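Title: Prediction job returns without error message
Component: structure pipeline
Severity: low
Priority: P3
Assignee: unassigned

Description:
Job completed but the reporter wants confirmation the result is attached to the right record. Sequence as submitted:
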Amino acid sequence: MIARRLWTLFEPLHAVTYFAPECRAAFEEAGLRGFWRGYFGGRAAPLGPVGAAPVTALFFGFAPRMVERALPALWELAGPEEALRARAVGARAALARLLGLPGTGLDAEDLAARPSGAPQWADPDGMTVGQRVVEAAGLLRRAAEAVDTSGRALAAANAALAWPTDPLDVLWHAATVLREHRGDGHVAALVVAGLDGCESLAWRAALDNDRALLQPARGWADEEWVRAEGRLREKGWLDADGKPTEFGEAAFAQVEARTDVIAEEVWRGVDVARLVGVVGPLARVAADALPFPNPIGLTK
């Protein structure tokens, strides 16, 4: 489906905020030292000074105690407004480095005239990297402004923030609204399928990911993971050897299909072919900042 293909374009642009060194440095400068303080502070900041329980529910895959170690205590180190500034500064610095653009903001006209200073940048269409960023920002913003945030708390919180003016900032903010919109929908589809957070991770580990990566990244204890696998066997998703069953694969295909269907409306009125052509090279460069494999599920 179109929605799934487009996810692979805007997700890398957003995900620099978790993995790029500039983002880690910006969070640390704001007082959020350590990867997980930056992660929970930056991602939860649009919700305000929220506690652990709502974040556990909305982020879905994390063990409650892992969230509780960060929230609400981290707000004493940096409030939501400081965390929002830090994530914006870090994301812009990361994308600017990856794309070979100035570290300070430029208006659209000045940016469009800028060639890339990054040695890895080779534009396939003869556009300057600045022209590509300006057009991509406009296309993704149009989609992000069209999202229906009903029942999607993370998307709604990000969509309610003021839009920046610098095209590179717009690009990252639009990608963030779109990825949280899709993520909220995916959580809803998992809930409809009867899965909880740990079960969803145990399933992905059995299907196409790695327990050694997912379990520690989301804070689940061995006994909790084993119980989740047991519940998946009771549901008929895993067999006695812990392998996916045909029933489980079919049920999860429905989850993915629901996720795509409820994300599809966003792209009506957007020139999808043009968007893929414009954003694709930017996404591939942004992916250089990400580890592979990763808990997000992005692949090279």
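Comment from assignee: result matches the submitted record. The first helix runs from residue 2 to 19.
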